[in-house]
Every structure is written in C-alpha cells, then in structure tokens.
Design brief:
Blueprint (H helix, E strand, L loop, with lengths): L26 H13 L2 E6 L5 H14 L3 E6 L8 H8 L6 H7 L9 H6 L11 E6 L10 H15 L5 H8 L8 H6 L6 E7 L20 E3 L5 H13 L14 H11 L8 H20 L3
Parallel strand pairs: 1-4, 1-5, 2-3, 3-4
Helix pairs in contact: 1-2, 9-11
Length: about 300
Amino acid sequence: MLNQIRNRYPGIRFFEKEEQKLFFGRKEECLDLQSMIKIKSLVVLFAKSGIGKSSLINAGLIPRMEKDNYCFVQVRFQDTNYTPADFVKEALKPFYQSSIFNQHASEVNPNVGLWEYIRACRFGDEENPKTPVFIFDQFEEFFNHSTNRQKELASTLANLVNNRIPDEVQSQMRAIPRRERTKEQLNWFSPIPAKVLMSIRSDRLSLLDELSTEIPTILRDRYHLKPLKIDQAKDAIIEPASLVGDSFLVDPFKYQEEVLQEILSHLSNENGEIESFQLQILCQQIEREVWGRQQGGH
C-alpha cells in the first residue's frame, strides 16, 4: 500500500499499479504489448535492466487491460525455499475455490498437479467471466530453482499456452461414460482460457530456450522494450510535475527549458535514448530540492 503523501517520481523503485496517473511516456508500448497479449497465448517481454519492464506492466498494461475483462495473477520466484508451483498457488489464493477442487480432485492424489489447482479457480463470475493473465515478472529468477522444481510449472504452462488439458486429466475424463458426464464435469475437463506474459532481462533471454522442449514456441512472440526516446522522456519528466493534488510531497512545479534540456542531454546515450531508471532517480532528486525550496518559502 502506498503512503498517502507520495513522490511524483518513484526513484529507485518501479511504478505500482496505483501510480498509473504518474506513469508517462510509454503509451505506444502499452498499446503494442496489450495487442500482442490479446492475440497471443504467450508473450515474452524483454529489456535491459533499468529500462522499466515492471513499471510498464504495473502502471501501464494492467490498468488498461483490466477494463477489457482481464484479471492478473502476478508471480515472482525470488525465494528458492519454495517451489515455483508454490508461488503460483499463493498468487491464486484470491481466485481459488476449494469446493470446486474437492468435487473433482484430491490433494492426496499424487497425480493432481498445478493445472487442477488453476482449474479450481474462478476468475470473475458466471455473468462476467474474466480471462486470467499470468504475469511472471523477472522470470530469470525461475532458473535459480532446481530443474526438478521447474518441471511442474513448465508442464502446466505448456498446457495453458497450447490450450490443452494434461494427459492424466484426459484419462480421468475418458473413464466417465459420455452419457454420465455432467455439465460441471465437462467444464472441469476442458482447457483453461488463459494468457501468459513472461518478463525477463535481455542478458538472460537465452535461458528460455531451456523450456523449448515443453514450449517450442516460447521465443516466437517477443516484445523488446527499449529505452525512452527524447519526446517520451520529456513527457515522463514534465507531466508528473504538473499534476494537481493534495497527496503529493510537493506542489505542482515546472522545469525551466534550459534545465530540461540539460537533463535530457545528461541522460541520453549515443543513440539519443534515456533509461527510465536513471531518469526517475534524477527527477526524484530534483523533486526533493523543489520541496526544500517550497518549505523555505522560495
């Protein structure tokens, strides 16, 4: 939960979903990534560290797609004391329906896996069903887990993105005579409509090839997030400073043109691009200086 009094620039951390109104400069990328996810079952977002992948997802993509009947299951694999499947189950708790699971599966059954747990979830309601989008941010962390622990999630993801049900679940369905299959059973024994977004650093992108046996198309649909262009960086600098509201650390302020140009020149690389991380750190420092002046009555 964000503090009531907040900065206009996040500094060293990434943007949160609640900060969507502060997130500027990435409209084109948001629209492109949103279109890809709607069309494809699996999309890989990759970029150098510090370019703003997590911010794009949290403050750009999620708020837009929630308006289109999508809901989001965000997962990180940062702790190797737990399995990747454990992290997914934890993220699914708000959607999990134990009554559905107990009706069709059993946790003591060694053949019951992560797919069944997801199938027992309800995303939205009967009148307004939503499509879940599994977001695996900083997916490079997944490869810190042992190969054995990776297998269950890889197998489940393969079933999700290929719109199929596991072989063992198909066997259970075939054991039920067609005439005896209920509506609830038919729903259980059906593919899970879902989307998957993996976010990973560029220098770790090749690790995804380790999952190509389970998911042959894993590297097919990729989106390369690049640094900000000059015009995008201008928006990311100017627009947050001009917002009006009583929840900000400082009152609205403007950048003098010569100061703005100095910032852009200082942060630009040889291609005229600017990394979001560096921009946010510098702008937050400027914001603090402005706060000091405002406190001093200047």
